[in-house]
Specification:
The structure holds two protein chains of two kinds. By secondary structure, chain A is of the alpha+beta class. Chain A contains two helices and ten strands. Chain B has a two-stranded antiparallel sheet. Chain B is an all-alpha fold. The chains are: A alpha+beta, B mainly alpha.
Chain lengths: ~170, ~375
């Protein structure tokens, strides 16, 4: 017959340690897979694809300093689905004829920008961020100029990647 | 017959004693109506659980479908508009009365020793309910939901060090996708409600344990000084919880429920348009309880300052609220005897109302 904890203090300590250890083992054994499940997205690579935007010859004919919103469609894997993500590309031609491919997301917190012709500015409807036609911040809270899509020109076609240039923290998209 | 059933239970588990113990709690007599907010919130939460469970019969947490499922509940499910409406207006009412309940406790100094834990547990409940509100807004799956998800996960990304990881974890990837909605869904219907369900009993247990601590007006006849802890244990008069206090609780519950029901029937839940990723003139809007915070986001421009509006001010604000009973340790409870706390409280409420009002004003013009 073993002694009860009331008779033997050392047995009481022993039992308390065992109770604690069992709780800890079960707790840790459960927490590890749960943590893995929750943190899983951190270990997934983003699906990066190229998508056609249009012919350079067409885009070069737009009016200078007037933004043209051109939709682009990225077919990407997201979780267990394959989805088509429609995104806006703001194509701008400056006076030297150089083309810019901006994202229409505000660099503050990602709201969709509006082009206000009367003020010649992009305005963010959420928190009042303002950008000029070349993407520079001219007012409000945004911390940096407009994101530029990763792009290349092949055989006279503009290709856009679902990724921004100069965006180490992968903000936006 | 009834007596026989009662005896059967009493012989085994002393049910009558148990019920007496539960119902017989002494409540300070004078502030009865002011003490109804707590049980009103418990009641509203029960309503949210009941309506929420049955909304799940039709809801799909998948981005392109979620809004249509919600639309279907509203327009094609028999009386679904009322169920959805109660869930929406019940949530708004709950957040509103949480603020009322907190203000009542703040101004009457009810968070002071020995009720510090009570306040901390209440703050946990408050934080969780606000997140429940925000996630609920996202689950509608309309255009606003989409932008709310994007904006709020971007806000989370401004947390120092772990921000970027946090956003990826919440979104289930770098972009808002099917996994994002699934995560928000799990958090809204399981994770957070379970936290609330666990903390409400703790909140109530602590009331029972700390005893009859009432508002200052309960102690007009007391001869003891404010610093004497014994003073706060003995109000001038008390009544039993059942039926005196519950009677008032029920009247308030009915009045509020009637208003919620009326709003649900007359206004219902607005569902709004489907998410159009290519829309060029859409201005996202936050729910009313988030407008103050939304407004705050406008005032800190540039790289170094954004963190104030996205992280520092809200975090420090919440930290101060959580730690309130440990910061304000004076024994005075009457709002008139501690003018600094009272004036600060009123100023804070006014600031909140002001920010909410200007935050609700129309934003940048869609087109000029």
């Amino acid at each position: 017959m073993t002694k009860s904890s009331e008779e033997s203090p050392s047995r009481r300590t022993f039992m308390m340690v065992v109770i604690g250890l069992i709780s800890a083992v079960i707790g840790v054994a459960l927490a590890i897979p749960i943590l893995g499940e929750v943190l899983s997205p951190l270990f997934k690579k983003r699906d990066i694809v190229w998508s056609e935007l249009g012919k350079v010859s067409d885009l070069e004919n737009i009016e200078p300093l007037v933004p043209k919103f051109v939709p682009v469609y990225f077919r990407v894997k997201e979780g267990w689905t394959v989805n088509t993500l429609p995104r806006q590309v703001i194509v701008v031609k400056d006076i030297t004829g150089k083309l810019y491919f901006f994202s229409n997301q505000c660099t503050h917190l990602g709201c969709p920008l509006h082009w206000i012709p009367a003020r010649q500015k992009f305005m963010c409807p959420c928190h009042g961020g303002m950008f000029n036609i070349l993407g520079k911040v001219v007012g409000g809270p945004p911390p940096r100029p407009l994101f530029v899509w990763v792009h290349k020109i092949e055989n006279g076609t503009v290709l856009i990647q679902n990724k921004f240039l100069d965006n180490p923290k992968e903000r936006g998209v | 017959m009834f007596k026989k059933i009662q005896n059967w239970f009493d012989e085994r588990i002393e049910l009558t004693e148990l019920i007496k113990e539960f119902n017989g709690e002494r409540i300070p007599a004078r502030g009865g109506w002011a003490y109804t907010f707590g049980s009103l919130l418990a009641f509203l939460f029960t309503v949210q659980v009941a309506t929420g469970i049955f909304l799940l019969f039709y809801y799909v947490p998948y981005f392109p479908m979620a809004r249509n499922a919600t639309y279907y509940i509203k327009h094609h499910v028999l009386l679904g508009n009322i169920l959805l409406g109660i869930h929406l207006w019940g949530a708004f009412t709950m957040i509103f009365f949480l603020l009322v309940h907190m203000s009542r406790v703040y101004f009457s100094g009810s968070y002071k020793k020995p009720r510090e834990l009570q306040w901390v547990v209440g703050m946990v409940l408050f934080s969780v309910v606000v997140i429940l509100g925000l996630t609920g807004y996202m689950l509608i799956g309309n255009e606003n939901s989409w932008w709310t998800i994007n904006v709020l996960t971007n806000v989370a990304a401004h947390t120092p060090v772990i921000g970027g990881f946090l956003r990826i974890i919440v979104r289930g990837g770098t972009e808002t996708s099917v996994l994002t909605m699934q995560h928000i869904f799990a958090v809204h219907v399981w994770l957070l409600p379970i936290v609330v369900i666990m903390f409400i009993p703790v909140h109530i247990f602590l009331i029972r344990k700390t005893g009859e601590q009432g508002m200052p007006l309960e102690y007009k006849n007391s001869q003891l000084s404010d610093d004497d802890l014994n003073k706060w244990k003995h109000p001038d008069a008390t009544v039993p919880f059942f039926p005196d206090q519950l009677f008032k609780d029920m009247i308030v519950a009915l009045a509020v429920f009637a208003v919620v029901y009326l709003l649900a029937v007359v206004y219902g839940a607005e569902i709004g348009p489907m998410y159009r990723p290519l829309a060029l003139n859409f201005a996202p809007e936050a729910d009313w309880y988030f407008l103050a915070n939304e407004e705050l986001l406008k005032y800190f421009p540039g790289h170094g300052l954004i963190i104030f509006s996205t992280f520092l001010v809200p975090t420090i604000g919440f930290a101060i609220l959580f730690a309130l009973p440990f910061i304000d340790r004076g024994h005075e409870r009457s709002p008139f005897k501690r003018p600094a706390a009272t004036v600060l409280g009123i100023l804070f409420l006014l600031l909140l109302v002001y920010l909410t009002l200007i935050g609700g004003e129309p934003k940048a013009p869609a087109t000029v």
